[in-house]
Specification:
Distance between the termini: 36 Å
GO molecular function: carbohydrate binding; hydrolase activity, hydrolyzing O-glycosyl compounds
Keywords: Carbohydrate metabolism, Glycosidase, Hydrolase, Polysaccharide degradation, Signal, Xylan degradation
CATH architecture of the largest domain: 5 Propeller
CATH superfamily of the largest domain: Glycosyl hydrolase domain, family 43
Family: Belongs to the glycosyl hydrolase 43 family.
Number of domains: 2
Oligomer: single chain
Protein name: Carbohydrate binding module (Family 6)
Bound molecules: beta-L-arabinofuranose
Strand content: 35-45%
InterPro entries: CBM6, Cellulose-bd_IV, Galactose-bd-like_sf, Glyco_hydro_43, Glyco_hydro_beta-prop_sf, Glycosyl_Hydrlase_43_Enz
Length: 453
């Protein structure tokens, strides 16, 4: 999104605006600000939530999607960018359309089911990537599609008895019983009957009598099976059905999220995490956003006593923090609650780094637990210019200045050095702002940072 950011920076200078006018500092939804993301699929694993998404290319006028992305968080507000560990290139047989998928863990391996259009048929099929880590890299588990019927949007669920199910479909809703290896299935492709009792009544389209459109998200909670899905088209809203078993019979339960948010599609993902329940969706809320330039967002909710899901609206605030962020351990530069003007890129030291930082760009970290007080700020940085700095602030991007770290010219954007500076006034639990200053454009990169007490 670098080109778009440069455009906005220039436009702001010309008309005398500041960047904060178009990126309000208080907003925390959508989750990612530096690229467009779509089709959220959260997975809770070992105290973190991993968020698998698609990536809408800048300026798209269709669902132009070439790769998938992974993000993670331990608190639902500060999200780490893990880059793109799986793309169309992962699947030699894939032609285009890296659309909506879901990942699941079984026996220490992570299986990521995705739809792609195949070179052989020109129709969508479901492929499966596999990795030893939730952040990849993922490889093609089969070297061919797992299943093909020309439909999209796989959702995977492992039942308590160990039987795994893969659901998918638009316009139909199909499922297979996955074998324990998670990359083969038994019993052929089954159809879930799309009845109005099960999936609601659509008016005005005789070919699609029920509300079910696409994007099933199937899971089990307290003995009840849920299918949350994109309903009606277009624009879509999010609806859900429940059933006493994994294959039905389904009963339509109503609206999870009405049509809103400047995108004619929406796409659900639901998890429980650290005592709360969270609903992920997408909209067109970022500057330049719309139906083909979408962004993933999240809301916290509580199930009603009878297990039904309340109707939710999109917000720009998002959920409250589910935990604090520890500033006294290494934190990645690409861990961000809200970023203004920043980009990320793969780092020569592994993972990603914060990049393409211009004067006044900043990242916000939320709910940072400084305790009795931080004394020193340390950052791993690279730069090809002299005179750049990281301002350590709290209260806002131009709030109280706790310290300033100078960043030298290291000779290359991936030649790293460690800088430190004294800080004061950082006590208790508060939001932290790292603001980047200097002359010209592209000031510095940040791989990681850490405070000492
Ligand atoms: O992102 C491409 C498609 O748009 C997804 O597969 C659908 O669920 C809709 O969100």
């Amino acid at each position: 999104m670098a080109t778009r950011r440069r455009f906005w920076t220039t436009a702001a200078a010309v008309v005398g605006l500041v960047l904060t006018v178009i990126t309000p500092a208080k907003a925390d939804n959508p989750i990612v600000q530096h690229i467009y993301t779509a089709d959220p699929a959260p997975l809770v694993h070992n105290g973190r939530v991993y968020l698998y998404t698609g990536h809408d290319e800048d300026g798209s006028t269709w669902f132009t999607m070439r790769e998938w992305r992974v993000w993670s968080s331990a608190d639902m507000v500060n999200w780490t960018d893990h880059g793109s560990p799986m793309s169309l290139a992962t699947f030699s047989w894939a032609k285009q359309d890296a659309w909506a998928g879901q990942a699941v863990e079984r026996n220490g391996k992570f299986y990521w089911y995705v739809p792609v259009v195949t070179k052989a048929t020109g129709r969508p099929a479901i492929g499966v990537g596999v990795s030893d880590s939730p952040t990849g890299p993922f490889r093609d588990a089969l070297g061919r599609p797992l299943v093909e019927n020309g439909e999209i949007d796989p959702s995977v669920m492992i039942d308590d008895d160990g039987q795994a199910y893969l659901y998918w479909g638009n316009p139909n809703l199909s499922y297979v019983r996955l074998n324990a290896d998670m990359i083969s299935y038994s019993g052929g492709i089954n159809r879930i009957p799309l009845t109005t009792a099960g999936f609601g009544t659509r008016t005005g389209d005789p070919n699609r009598p029920t509300l079910y459109e696409e994007a099933p998200w199937v899971y089990k909670r307290n003995g009840l099976y849920y299918n949350v899905f994109a309903a009606k088209c277009c624009s879509e809203f999010i609806a859900y059905s429940t059933a006493p078993g994994p294959t039905g019979p389904w009963t339509y339960r109503g609206t999870v999220m009405p049509t809103q948010g400047n995108s004619f599609t929406n796409h659900p993902g639901i998890v429980d995490f650290k005592g709360g329940s969270y609903f992920f969706y997408h909209n067109g809320a970022l500057p330049g956003g719309g139906g083909f330039t979408r962004s993933v967002a999240v809301e916290k909710f509580s199930y009603n006593a009878d297990g039904t899901i309340p109707t939710m609206n999109m917000s720009t605030t998002g959920p409250p923090p589910a935990d604090t962020l520890n500033p006294y351990v290494r934190q990645e530069g690409e861990t961000i609650a809200w970023g203004s003007g920043v980009e990320t890129e793969p780092s020569s030291e592994g993972g990603m780094n914060l990049s393409h930082l211009n004067n006044g760009d900043y990242v916000k970290l939320k709910n940072v637990a400084f305790g009795n007080g931080a004394r020193t700020f340390t950052a791993r940085v690279a730069s090809t210019v002299a005179g750049s700095s990281i301002e350590v602030r709290s209260g806002g991007p131009t709030g109280a200045l706790a310290g300033t770290c100078s960043v030298p010219n290291t000779g290359n954007w991936q030649t790293w050095t460690t800088v430190s500076c004294a800080v004061n006034g950082l006590t208790g639990t508060r939001d932290l702002y790292l603001r980047f200053t200097g002359g010209g454009s592209y000031l510095l990169n940040v791989n990681w940072w850490q405070f000492s007490a």
